[in-house]
Write a structure and sequence with these properties.
The two termini are 34 Å apart. The protein contains 12 helices and 18 strands. It is an alpha/beta fold. Helix 2 packs across helix 9 and helix 9 runs antiparallel to helix 10 (325-354). Bound molecules: flavin-adenine dinucleotide.
Length: 388
Amino acid sequence: MTAPRTIVIAGAGIGGLTAALALAAQGFRVLICEKTGRLEEAGAGLQLSPNATRILIGLGLQPRLAPHVTTPASVSIMTARSGGEVIRLPLGSARDHAPYWLVHRADLQSALLGAVTAHPDIELRLGCPVDTFRAQPGGIAVNDESALALIGADGAWSTVRRQVFPETRPQFSGLIAWRGTLETSRLDSDLFPHGVQLWMGPKAHLVVYPVSSGERINMVAIMPGAVMQPGSSDTGDTGEIRRHFAASHWPANARAMIESVENWRRWPLFTIQDGGMWHEGSVALLGDAAHAMLPFAAQGAGMAIEDAAVLAQCLGTAGHDAAGIAPALERYAQLRQPRVTRVQRTARQSGQIYHLRGPMALARDLTMRALGAGRLQARQDWIYNWKL
Ligand SMILES: Cc1cc2nc3c(=O)[nH]c(=O)nc-3n(C[C@H](O)[C@H](O)[C@H](O)COP(=O)(O)OP(=O)(O)OC[C@H]3O[C@@H](n4cnc5c(N)ncnc54)[C@H](O)[C@@H]3O)c2cc1C
């Protein structure tokens, strides 16, 4: 039997671990139940913009993350049409002391894990899937533990969501993210991306940036494809990438980077439709469980981190009384949904713009140049300048 001020979190991904730290900072005891027996090095690079890094720094994670992050000077938007740069957006100095970070997901997860395991009020149970839960007086029974609330931070294929909102299912976008890394030293110095490089091309795009303090380069190639097995990644046939990023459409420099990757894996991109339900009684969803999105705004983990901070603030304001939990979770959902829906739409629209072809691609490139770096950057302000 767990103590009465306990919150159970299903899932020890970026969202679940951040939520545990934020809830513990509000005086809750947190039990994280993670399905897998070992936290694997899943995924590759992540861009974390100031709206997310501000929260991580506030939770005291900067010393653990500093050795692993890279702070890019700019985002270069490149076009496959000419092989050159359309425009460079300086990322500038940190916004309100919050930097833009490039980090390997495994480094972020282990920094969060280090803080979680050092915290006296957080318990992490590995090999502990959340599969059954039911409402009971004063809260919820989860895997035979009593708690005030259950937070489903168990990813796009969430078991918690399936039980509470069975009608919400992940939808396949028709796109595959091929993700891989390579040692920086393997890339010719003239190809080395000093900041983030975003290549736009016909029905595809490519994102390249350094991770692991610049020792490795992270590469993501987005293109149409079929799903092998929903909910998992696989090594696939790398010939598919070479064929899609063919010399007829893609310049030699982009193709040389693609050729240098050592460990491609394909991730079918599934999304959760905007505007779904996030909360029912003492149960709430967070991160990809609530809003798995296309990664084209580089905000999926960022939104999970923001969710964690808002959730903890709402529950903290409600106090540790069971009667305040459901209204606090409702408030959390109301505060988060409009912003997350806007980010989901922005990500979809960005993909459509990046993948234009022919005269439309030329018009896009000319429009971006005409708008200029200042105006293009100001379009991100509503995302990056968000604060709790
Ligand atoms: C190609 C690509 C590039 C991306 N780039 C970026 C980026 O640059 N910036 C950014 O912010 N985001 C990015 N994202 C998105 C980001 O990776 C995700 O949004 C984020 O990792 C989601 O975290 P999460 O904690 O919600 O879910 P997950 O990371 O999926 O974690 C869920 C956890 O729950 C566990 N679990 C599952 N079921 C159960 C259960 N029943 N009981 C207990 N545990 C369970 C799982 O094992 C897992 O550990 C990218 C995504 C992709 C695909």
